[in-house]
Amino acid sequence: MKLTLKIWRQKNSQTKGELKTYPIDGVEGDMSFLEMLDVLNEGLINKGEEPVVFDHDCREGICGSCSLQINGEPHGPDRLVTTCQLHMRMFNDGDTIVIEPFRAKAFPVIKDLVVDRSSFDRIQQAGGYISVNTSGNTIDANTIPVNKHDADESFNAATCIGCGACVAACKNASAMLFTSAKVSQFALLPQGRIEATERVLNMVAQMDKEGFGNCSNTGACEIECPKGISLENIARMNREYLGASLKG
Fold first, then answer.
1. CA 240 – CA 217 distance, rounded (Å)
2. Are both 3-111 and 117-247 of the same fold?
3. For domain 3-111, which CATH number applies: 3.40.570.10, 3.10.20.30, 3.90.20.10, 3.90.1520.10?
4. pLDDT score for 141
5. Quick check: 222 and 177 in contact, CB under 8 A?
6. What is the pLDDT of residue 143?
7. Whole-model pTM over 0.85
8. Are 199 and 179 within 8 A, CB to CB?
9. By the 8 A CB rule, do 55 and 62 touch?
10. What are the residues whose beta carbons fall under 8 Å from the beta carbon of 12, sequence distance 6 or more?
11. What architecture does CATH give domain 117-247?
């Protein structure tokens, strides 16, 4: 395939960026989107030009770092996949593809297509954990029975990889889906109830502090999420937050 790529180039967060056009040939349908960018960069390097900077790690849909806005959609036109799992057969010969970084105030651009998503880390650090006795004393495994539905729902919430597609898809750049998934994975289990009140209050407060917007109620976050995280988690977090606020 022959394609025309319009790629966002930006030296750093203080510099004004712009879309630059790059023609590319010899793209095969079985290539992943990142492999296609590798081919582009190899050509740029051979010509003595600066390669396009983009984020990646596992290339298996696990780490969430390959977050790109492709033709206006987080992770591109396919569903339930990350950018590294997106194959070029989703595009046609002669297509023009616009590639940009995720756009959000809380995701400042580092360079080109790479954004700083450490705001997600700080939200998790605000309460996304449970206390564990690490004194060295031997402790029996937890024997509290867990309802299978709750266990499954908790596991589904825990599959969130923190890629930020939910933020990029939301017109308000809301992090409600991400934060609610991290709250839900503990709220549904007895081990997570001990710090439940403190957790949801602190995580929501940190989310607001980072500059994310309010939930738009459009559901775009769930549609674009590569792991299909449900909007039900937002409703659960709202219930948790209301209960925690009434307690104190």
1. 18
2. no
3. 3.10.20.30
4. 64
5. yes
6. 76
7. yes
8. no
9. no
10. 109, 110, 111
11. Orthogonal Bundle (1.10)
For the cut 80, the answer to whether the pLDDT of residue 142 exceeds it is: no
* Range scoring the smallest mean pLDDT among 71-75, 145-149, 207-211, 225-229: 145-149
Rounded to whole angstroms, how far apart are CA atoms 170 and 216? 7
Is residue 75 over pLDDT 70?
yes
The domain spans of the chain are: 3-111, 117-247
Q: Which of 56, 114, 111 is nearest to 83 (CA)?
A: 56
Mean pLDDT of the chain: 95
For tokens 């988690």, name the residue: 233
Q: Which residues pair with 19 in a beta bridge?
A: 8
Task: For strands 114-115 and 73-74, give the pairing.
Answer: unpaired
Model confidence pLDDT, tens digit, residues 155-177: 999 999 999 999 999 999 999 99
The answer, yes or no, to whether residue 101 has pLDDT greater than 80, is yes
pLDDT band, very low/low/confident/very high, at 107 (cuts 50, 70, 90)? very high
What confidence score (pLDDT) does residue 145 get? Answer: 87
* Pair of tokens at residue 239: 């219930």
